[in-house]
Amino acid sequence: MATASSLFLASSPISTAPRNRAGPGSAASCPSSARPSLRLRQRPAPAVAAAVQAEHQPAVAAAPKPPALPFRVGHGFDLHRLEPDLPLIIGGINIPHDRGCEAHSDGDVLLHCVVDAILGALGLPDIGQIFPDSDPRWKGADSSVFMREAVKLMQEAGYELGNLDATLILQKPKISPFKETIRANLCDLLGADPSVVNLKAKTHEKVDSLGENRSIAAHTVVLLMRK
């Protein structure tokens, strides 16, 4: 199991572009007639791993070493409000849409959900405790940073991914044209074979904020196997 120090990230700030709202005529708007184009977000340098201040996560420092179980199961859930003229990032992919997630980081609901599932399986605090939104270093941060740290913790604890099943819940846009690109990037971040990573997408039948295109949510279940 990783020590508390392995959860800390470098004190130098992450270089991320501000998530500015776009004006009516800017490139961020996506007319319905425009052909969707996918853009893989540029990943932060590998050097981004070593020290979030200990005072931000007392629960992490005090976390007991988990028993060496043959397998562990974790569940993750995340939800973000959708607002106009923000980028919609899902699984590290910029999806063309007229709304995006309002969040402290890049608002990637899928990666946040997967991180929480892995941390939960390991018996560790959730993503909000390890990467608090009160820390300005995570403002607009690329969520692949959080994913890589979760995978590192999994490996240091002596586990590998058995399989992962994730479900996106959103009314718009349709995810089917982008699903395989998202899944491929998720596999890359996890270092996993595509055969053990499953991704589904559901609408919310126009019910509540999810069905009214005012929010987006995701559920993830992971099985970790002892190496």
UniProtKB/TrEMBL annotation:
Region annotation Disordered: where it falls in the sequence: 14-45
GO molecular function, one term: 2-C-methyl-D-erythritol 2,4-cyclodiphosphate synthase activity
InterPro entries, alphabetized: MECDP_synthase (IPR003526), MECDP_synthase_CS (IPR020555), MECDP_synthase_sf (IPR036571)
Record field: compositional bias (Low complexity): 21-45
Keyword Acetylation (UniProt): no
UniProt subcellular location: Plastid, Chloroplast
Catalysed conversion reaction: 4-CDP-2-C-methyl-D-erythritol 2-phosphate = 2-C-methyl-D-erythritol 2,4-cyclic diphosphate + CMP
Cofactors, names only: a divalent metal cation
Domain of life according to the entry: Eukaryota
Listed SUPFAM superfamilies: IpsF-like (SSF69765)
Entries under Pfam families matching the protein: YgbB
Family: Belongs to the IspF family.
This protein's name: 2-C-methyl-D-erythritol 2,4-cyclodiphosphate synthase
